């Protein structure tokens, strides 16, 4: 399943033991407003639906987009919504955001 949110691509991909909600920022990497909107939407969607992990694909590039993503995720009001961040060591072009399971 995949649907478009603004200009960024949000998809649900098969992962080990379930699905993985994915946000690909390649289509919006030049528009700060769209980047923040896409990140905000996926974080709130994951929190609301109880997704355990969100994969954010920012690409390898120069690291500027990665910095923007990390700066957004480290804001105090956003930080309260997830449990932890994992910068994938096997693929430096993605960040995994882990959420506390809903009880």
Strand element count: 6
Give the biggest sheet.
6 strands, mixed
Q: What does the radius of gyration come to? A: 13 Å
What distance lies between the first and last C-alpha atoms, to the nearest angstrom? Answer: 26 Å
- The fraction of residues in strands falls at 25-35%
Shape descriptor reads: globular
List segments where confidence is low: pLDDT < 50 over at least 5 consecutive residues. Answer: 1-8
Q: Going across the major beta sheet, what is the strand order?
A: 1-2-3-4-6-5
Order of SSEs, N→C? EEEHEHHEE
Class based on secondary structure composition and strand pairing: alpha+beta
Look at the structure and give the mean pLDDT. Answer: 83
Helix content: 25-40%
Q: What's the number of helices?
A: 3
Helix/strand layout:
Blueprint: E1 2-5, E2 8-15, E3 18-24, H1 32-49, E4 53-57, H2 64-73, H3 76-79, E5 84-87, E6 94-98
Parallel strand pairs: 3-4
Antiparallel strand pairs: 1-2, 2-3, 4-6, 5-6
Notes on the structure:
It is a single chain. Helix content is 31%, strand content 32%. The protein is of the alpha+beta class and 103 residues long. The radius of gyration is 13 Å and the shape is globular. Residues 1-8 have low confidence and may be disordered.
Task: Put the structure in a nutshell.
The chain has 103 residues and is of the alpha+beta class. It is built from three helices and six strands, in the order E-E-E-H-E-H-H-E-E.
Give descriptors for this structure:
103 residues; alpha+beta
């Amino acid at each position: 399943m995949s649907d478009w949110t603004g200009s960024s691509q949000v998809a649900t991909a098969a992962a080990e033991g379930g699905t993985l909600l994915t946000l690909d920022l390649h289509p919006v990497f030049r528009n700060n407003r769209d980047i923040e909107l896409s990140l905000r939407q996926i974080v709130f969607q994951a929190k609301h639906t109880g997704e355990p992990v969100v994969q954010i694909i920012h690409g390898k590039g120069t690291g500027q987009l990665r910095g923007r993503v990390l700066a957004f995720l480290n804001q105090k009001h956003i930080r309260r919504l997830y449990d932890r961040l994992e910068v994938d060591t096997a693929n430096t072009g993605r960040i995994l955001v882990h959420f506390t399971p809903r009880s």
